[in-house]
Structures are given as C-alpha cells and as structure tokens.
Amino acid sequence: MSIEVKICGVNTPEAAHAAAGAGADYIGLVFYPPSPRAVTPAEAGAIARALPASVRKVGLFVDAGDALIAEALAAVGLDLLQFHGSEAPARVAAVRARFGVPVMKAIKVAGASDVAGAGAYLRVADRLLFDAKAPEDMTGALPGGNALAFDWRLLADRSWPLPWMLSGGLDPANVAEAARICGAPAVDVSSGVEDRPGVKNLDKIRAFVAAAKGC
Fold first, then answer.
1. Strand partners of residue 188
2. Does the structure show a pLDDT above 80 at 140?
3. What is the structure's pLDDT at 135?
4. pTM greater than 0.85 (yes/no)
5. pLDDT confidence tier of residue 148, bands split at 50, 70 and 90
C-alpha cells in the first residue's frame, strides 16, 4: 500500500491542479490569516470546486472559533478538520460532535515527551499529525510550515490506534528517508514544495508526490 500524501497550504487553483494531477490524496487549505498561505472560505471554495472528488479537502485551523469553521465548511465542504493550535482534547471533541466532520490533531514535537502527549487525543480525534515544534526563540514562527524537522526516530516502532501523518521539514529529497525511518503511513508538506512562503512550486509538488509514492 502506497504512502498517502497531503500538500498543505494550497492557495491557488494551479497548485491544487498540480497536486491532484500528481496523485496527492489530500490538499490542505489554511484558514489562519497570519499565515502567508492563508485563504478565505470563498477563495478556498473556488479552489476546491476544481478538484476531483478523489482528493480530500482538509481545512487547517489554529484555535479557531465555531463561526469560522462553519463558514469554511459551508463554502468548501471539507472532508477533514486539522487543528494546529493549542486546542485541548475537550475542544477537539466538542467541534467533532457539533459539526460531524472528522478531526486531525497536530502534535508538535521536539522530544519524546511531546510524542507521549498524543495519548490525550486518542479518544477525541480521528487522526494525528506529528509536526516539528518551533523553538521559543524563533522569530516569526508559525504554528506550522516553518521548514523545521524533528528527530524522526522518535516515532520509529511506535503505533497508535488512529491513522497518522508525518510533517515538518519534509521535501522531495528527504521524504523517502523520513518515511523509512519512522514508518509513516502518510506525509504532509507545505514549505518543502515552495519557492518562498506561500508560493508553491508546481514541479516540487510533483516531485514530492512521486518521491513519497515511490517509497
């Protein structure tokens, strides 16, 4: 079974088409205004309408209120909600119950204790995503998409009762090695397929999907 691939921070129809054409399983739409990859619900809807039904649409939210989530769902018809902020398990459970849409919770990792923190979300989320935790002294750090990797060995020989994705510092050159080390069944990329923050490189998208699918 091939590795699933998510291209996150898609903010143009061209990038969406490139991801879908290359065989990506998911595209991520960022509903977090401080991000250079952010889209409005209306913009996201226009991007999503051009995608084949086989590509699942993920909405990325950071400590968002219900109003924004509802607006994005109405405009896009999201298949998965990705929570990439400091959402507590109770908040994840509440949103999942209210909207009836699967939720993926991002776990930000710097060390083994962070990986252990995933346990709190096993009964309230549908998926997990392990991403690199930005250092406290990093200037301009975002909740994700900082082009940072963590030690993939922290996830090696680990298993969870939920599907999970690996994110953080991945690119076409290292994704195969990352998946080999930690056994990731799915991978997620944003900055690793960009020319600069918020500007996707279509050739890099295609190369990333090909490298991941070829593992």
1. 6
2. no
3. 65
4. yes
5. confident
User: Which pair of structure tokens corresponds to residue 83?
Assistant: 């929570």
Contact indicator for 31, 68 with CB cutoff of 8 Å: yes
Q: What is the pLDDT at residue 61? A: 98
State the catalytic residues.
8, 131
CATH number of the structural domain spanning residue 140: 3.20.20.70
Torsion angle in degrees (nearest 10) through CA of 180, 23, 95, 147: 50
- Hey, which bits of 90-155 come out as E strands? 103-109, 127-132
Task: Name the β-bridge partners of 142.
Answer: none
- φ/ψ bin of 101: left (φ > 0), alpha (ψ from -120 to 50), beta (otherwise): beta
Domain range for 114: 4-213
List 57's β-bridge partners, or say none.
27
Q: Is there a contact between 156 and 181 (Cβ–Cβ < 8 Å)? A: yes
Q: What is the mean pLDDT of residues 31-40?
A: 96
Number of domains making up the chain: 1
d(CA 117, CA 110): 11
CB-based burial, 189-210: b 16+ in 10 Å, e otherwise:
bbbbbbeebbebbbebbbbbbe
| CB distance 99 to 61 below 8 Å | no
Task: Classify residue 144 as exposed, middle or buried by CB count within 10 Å of its CB (0-12, 13-18, 19+).
Answer: buried
User: Residue 151 and residue 139: Cα distance in Å, rounded?
Assistant: 21
